[in-house]
Amino acid sequence: MLHVISDAIFAQHDPGNAHVEAPDRWAVVDRALRTAGELDFLLPRPATAEEIGRVHPDRHLAYLDQLCAEGGGTIDADTVASRESCDVMRLAAGAAVQSVELALEGEPAFALGRPPGHHALPDRAMGFCLLNNAAIAVRHAQSLGIRKVAVIDWDVHHGNGTEAIFSADPEVLYVSTHQEGLFPHTGSTEDVGIGSAAGTTVNIPLPPRTGDQGFKQVFDELIGPIVEAFAPELLVVSAGYDAHWRDPIGGLRLSAAGFAELASRVTAWARACSGGRLVLVLEGGYDLEALAASVLATAEAIVGRPVVDPLGPAAGPERDIQERLARICEIQARWWPVAARS
After folding, report:
1. How far apart are alpha carbons 53 and 136 in whole angstroms?
2. Which of 119, 140, 178, 244 does the annotation list as catalytic?
3. Rounded to two decimals, what is the model's pTM?
């Protein structure tokens, strides 16, 4: 069984002006998942001030609340709030918190909230993100006694907010696969964590045209051994789908079937390390058909159903990443039992 936290209110956050992070993103994902079996749909509750405050200071919430009360407005070139956005963002954060509570009972959960969150810094909304939903989920888990959490971020963009929040926390492993050279221009392989948390940040910037095979290598040869050695009590996935080959703002080449392979791996790791405790939090993905197909494939893989990819793989050859993978393994071998195949 996979619990899905979803509500039509997630379509009420509206950046307007044909923004790619559009309300239809929630609608197509919710509709696709309701065609699947073995899913339990639940409504979200808003995150409390205490839950949000573990990540974001009061002044950040006060700024956003005032902006929404005034009818919304532009925060930066990419990030916009509407009048309804503050209510919606609290429910998106609450969905992530609920997902943790469900996962701690031993069953995986997927929070379908928007706006996304992994770019949000403690005191700054950016990159379409108002609150950092995944980080709020992790801090909630820690408040409930979970000692070690692994965050796997497979969005095409680096989750600079999530990394910044946990870069000095040795009990949170943050792993990001992202396309090199994209916004927010962070996520260097040399950024490995701070002080006693050195080694608990694992950045994997990938060249354009990296696809299903490259991701399989990365997950099998690098991320899997690190997660196993870290032995988390909970896995949280920042589940962005803009690494799909059809996405308009990325250049990676994952397919929906490729996302299913990633989901199968994190599900297996959760079962092996943490009693099946797995949370997924929706992040990016801006081609609606690819987003719907990829989220559905993820859900089907988690519950063990056959995966059908209506869009198929990208045409043409993938980029070879063996040299890149070897360099990252060399860096991470200071802390983890990893070595790329020659």
Report:
1. 8
2. 119
3. 0.98
